[in-house]
């Protein structure tokens, strides 16, 4: 299990700022908290949202006051704040699809992470992952080391990762599940009189985004809706896929002329929120005393610097998503305590807190006996749910004194969820190829839309490199020690690479990563 010092939790707080690159939709619903509200220095709250039953409070590190640049209209940022705090309901009745698709060929591109389908795929999949500069952001001076470093990390991590994939059947089910979601979405769109084709583009494994784009061109698609299968936007997930699309679009004359729009996030849509609440309600009934169960939302983490330095809206969107689900449960008279934590951190840098593993231990110390894990940032089963949550975190919970463990399944092809995604696509069709500003002026209920270029100009426009963590040296297996161990490892890697380049000998040359020369 991961090691690290448990942080002291004394408050329930939500981190926000006066400047957001995307509407965080912070709820104004006030709740009674078991802990006093504390905001870190400089943190500005758009709403005094206090989590009523939040047993383990959220961490607030404050949002940086970075000024974001926008490529087109100066009032784009203000327009993006439309609908803050609102649940987005499906509204397709007033849309006449006949005129939208008369002579058009409609395509929907689903974007996802991808995963190795066999154990032999694990190492090359990891290489593709760590070779992405949106996953590991090296200083500009060291960008040439991106692929050698990715090769080194993938080779080192592959044996452990293979063990995890072996424990869930020898590979990730993500591709098959995503294909099933694409087929169900296609059926739903056709049932709603939108004869669209649906494509799957994975970022790090087959079918790659490039493969999906080639099929889109062969099919002669003229209007494309890009739909990342990440409910909340992050520059490391949706943002990375959009950057890849940007580079593909820029170099292809057909794609330059093809009209498209992007639905960057959809965590606040009513269908998604109700589908999640349905699954939670169903799993709670399996406990002997459902009212005593703590609802444990576990989201995939991102480095803290992505939020504080690069303007990633992920944390704000995640917190609002949890609030909306809790509000929906309250309407059903489900008043359980809950908390939100972040999993899957790697490397020496600080990630979003609280960490899932540390929070589980803390809940055990507080005497919690029943826990229901909710994989909030995942809509498909994969390694983080099937192995990390179902095996590692369940084992940790039982060791920590938690006696009753449950887990909400990922949405997969849940009908309400798929139908609402279809509605989101239909609602976006009138604005394919239109400016994002006119989209918002015309339909304020829509999740903000825009072209790939507009969205990338809004999110993380300067693509800042991650700052080094600032901690004090400590010896042992503490977080600070891990940080310094990581720095030492990075230094060792750089020295080895320097020797490889200067001598022309070493394991990277033997593997063919670097050319052989003397």
Automatic annotation (TrEMBL):
UniProt keyword Endoplasmic reticulum present: no
Stretches for region Disordered: 1-20
CDD domains: Ferrochelatase_C, Ferrochelatase_N
Catalytic activity: heme b + 2 H(+) = protoporphyrin IX + Fe(2+)
Topology class, membrane: Peripheral membrane protein
Gene3D superfamilies xrefs: 3.40.50.1400
Location(s), subcellular: Plastid, Chloroplast membrane
A Pfam family hit: Ferrochelatase
GO MF annotation terms: ferrochelatase activity
This protein's record includes keyword Iron: yes
InterPro entries: Ferrochelatase, Ferrochelatase_AS, Ferrochelatase_C, Ferrochelatase_N
A GO-annotated cellular component: mitochondrion
Keywords: Chloroplast, Heme biosynthesis, Iron, Lyase, Plastid, Porphyrin biosynthesis
Alphabetical list of NCBIfam families matching this protein: hemH (TIGR00109)
HAMAP family: Ferrochelatase
Family annotation (PANTHER family): FERROCHELATASE, FERROCHELATASE, MITOCHONDRIAL
UniProt record similarity statement: Belongs to the ferrochelatase family.
Name of the protein in question: Ferrochelatase
Encoding gene (name): LOC111299699
